[in-house]
Model the fold of this input.
Amino acid sequence: MIRIKELEKVYRTEDVETVALNKLTFEVKEGEFVAVMGPSGCGKSTLLNIVGLLDDPDNGSFLFNGIEVSHFNERKRADLRKRNIGFVFQSFNLIDELTVFENVELPLIYLGVKTDERKKRVESVLDKMQIMHRRNHYPQQLSGGQQQRVAVARAVVNNPKLILADEPTGNLDSSNGNEVMALLTDLNEQGTTIIMVTHSEHDARYSHRIIRMLDGQTVTENILL
Amino acid sequence: MITHYFKIAIRNFRRNKLFSFINVFGLGLSMSVCLLVLLRLNHQLSYDGFHSRAKELYRINTVLTSRDGSTYRMASSAMPLAPALLQSYGIIDKAIRVQPATATTASTSQKALHIRAAYTDPGFLQVFSFPVLKGDAATALKNPNTVVLSRTYAERLFGSTNVIGSVLTLENAGNFIVTAVLAEAPSKSHLDFDAYFPIASITGAENEARAKAGDWSNYNHTYTYVLLHPGATEDQLQKAAASISAELAKTSSLQGQENYGFMVQPFGSIVLGEELINNLGDIGSRSKTFIEILVGLVILVSACFNYTNLSIARSLKRGKEVGIRKVSGAPRTQVFYQFITESLLVSLVALAVGCFMLKLIIDYAPFSGEMIPEGFSINRTLVITFIVFACFTGLIAGVIPAWALSSFAPVDVLKNLANVKLFGGNRFRKGLIITQFTISLFTLIFTTIAARQFRYMSSADPGFDRENLAVIPLNGADPKVIATRLKTVTGVEDVSATSLTPGHSSSGRVAVSRLKGNQPLSFDYYDTDLNWLKVLRLQLTAGNSMPEVNDAHAGAFVVINEKAIEVLNFKSASEAVGQTVWLNDSSQVQIAGVVKDFHFRSLAVPISPLVLRYRPDNFKLLQVRTNLSSPQIETTLESAWKQVYPAKPFQVSWLQQDLYERASALSTVSMLYFLAFIAVTIACLGLFAMVIYNTETRTKEIGIRKVFGASVAVIVTLLSRDFLKLVFIAGLIALPLSLIGGGLFLQVFASRVTMDPVSIILCFAGLLVLVMLTISTQIIKVASANPVASLKVE
Done:
């Protein structure tokens, strides 16, 4: 599904040049659950942003489902993203002005799904995430665990092929964290490919494969299954 | 999608009440000015929209170029122009002349009323589409001694519109039979008269005073409209007019005088068109309209700055939302539309505030009389214009923030919002605040300068005594008869008849030369009686007033002013007395006396040469010198008038008050102060919002500073300093600009005040105090807060 070859990304300011990805080569097959680990600044988030088509690389090749996407412009990236990728963030990133229902509905609006169909799909996913009773609440009225469940619901509502999770349990206690990991595992078992950046060895153990990064490169790979 | 945009817009509007209020109130205030301009523009543009053949209709204007090269472009033209065009050129279907009548009173056996009348050609109602309520448009003006009345005038004079066949008497012109009554026109017209008489009826005094049928040299009183045959072009008409002008150049009566030309003006471009001499009717002023639109836009843009500034300041809060939307698949355009929807919503709510403010202006503002068009109506076009304007405002205000916010890359905003900078961070916002305060201070200082100048003009001595001087329109009364009666009223010292009172403008201009055939000089003139100088308490430098002989002989004498002595090259006033001069190269008159220079026109213009003539036919007003204050004597004057002329209308005004109202320009000054108030309020609102935002984002910094020993005073100084610096920069820009602007404004006036540094400094100090009051409450509140609480929140 994802084939990355010799990918480079350098951040430049007036004084400093930081190499985030240094000829990184990396592959993820459809249906895999991959955890990416490494110390802060090793390039994990940069990798996730590029894979999620939120950022573009400076050099190298990135094939998404066999299509070279490294040179895509913003419009093309946005189009590919909204059809194929769901995101889960450490800080949930829900829109405070929208209710639970509306937050989950958001990707479907941008996909142009009709109102009736949207309602059906949102309610179905909220039911699955067990937060249907909170559908009219605003994010600030929910606990951290509930907010992350809403975020996961939003990530999966458009049935993406790939879910990218950036430290999804980082802001949660262990009980809520385990619940979220269980949700991701369920999704993966249903066929969704997952790439998760994490600092937690515990969470990484839910994955099939752990990739460890250092200074913008992969250093080791542990296959857990 | 649009529902979603509006839903979010409404929630954001509700959630951020203070910012929403600042945006709505600021935009609403500025919109009230723009709505006022739009209202005036809409009213003006509605003029003459109902004439079905307007596209084939033109007015022929006169262009005179004098020997000194000055060009005079006049809306009026000579009487013979219409027949000349009709007879010689096949392109013209109809040519219609309109000549306002000098008569001001019409009467029946029961009633006399002031009238605004005009003489016109029989085809008037076929060329112009004034709807006819009663009578036959085709024949109404066919015969002499007929008249077409407006509906309102028929009702006022006869009490009904069923007046076909009734007779009215026009002052100095005879009896006329009503042949038609006009219905209300669908909109206003620059041709706005109570009655139309056939041009063939011009006789007697009217003919003497105004244009004679074959007189090309009298181009001041008639207006010529032509209707072209279908297919004929403006170019052909222009050529026809040019060939008439070429023919005229060869004729003896005009040979060697001014270059006499014509200008073709499409009927549709008369209203809000070129400002011509002798313009007829209310056509509005293009330059004034342009200035109004400009002022409205400056105020509007200033309010839009607040919206832009606040939206950009709040971008840190909205950035995360943009990031999430983009991550969820929103392209930039959709994010852009969402923010534009929000600004449109704010703008539409502001429109409601603007409309409310406009209502207050209409009902209570001192300048509403001058600014609100008489008889304006709120119609569908106006409502649509207002809504379109509100949307336009929303776009102006929202486009920059929408563009900027929609440009956020999700990676940046979701990772570290604090690092995101728009338009160079604070610099852009500071620039906007400086601009707003520059505009405010400029308006404030300029208004103060203008107010001082107008105050000076209303109180400065014009050189004649304007106190306790009642002005009574003659309305057809015999000046000698009524003057004799009024002189017997207790409190009346003296009475004089005149064509016009001094202080604002003269009755007109006349060509004066010392020898017949010499190059003439243009003098202002009044037609006055022999008492004029005495009643106005003017001083004679030499000679006397016109001698008390019979009317025919008195007309052979004139009084001139000192400036006239100078331009006629007399060595002294006493040398001039007894000398003769030529008026219009046709009448030789003797100088009876020289009057000391006085400001017979506004103090705004320099004193020019003046000649006082004795022509009783042109007397329009009585000037009554009294020794009592106005209310006491008005009733006595009216009773005396009614004893002599029970049917003639009696009106009285007081010269001092009239001139004060004109010179003090109360409407203009109050309007300027209103604009200054709006500019300052908008700027302060914007500043207040920025202070709130700034203090909110600096809570942690303030907490840390306090923990490490900073006092409240230090924090207040720290926070205030940045804002005060902006106002001082605005001051540095605005002060020289206002001095230049004020200086240029004062240059317009012949008599003017000097620039007063104290009042300018006071304006700046006043603004500073206002700024400090605006920012101090919020800054002191934040500086006094417990640092523990703020750090905990952080």
User: Anything to note?
Assistant: The mean pLDDT of chain B is 85. Residues 712-747 of chain B form the longest helix (36 residues). Chain B touches chain A at residues 1, 4, 7-8, 11-12, 15, 320-321, 323-332, 334, 409-411, 414-415 (CB under 8 Å). The CA atoms of residues 104 and 312 of chain B lie 63 Å apart.
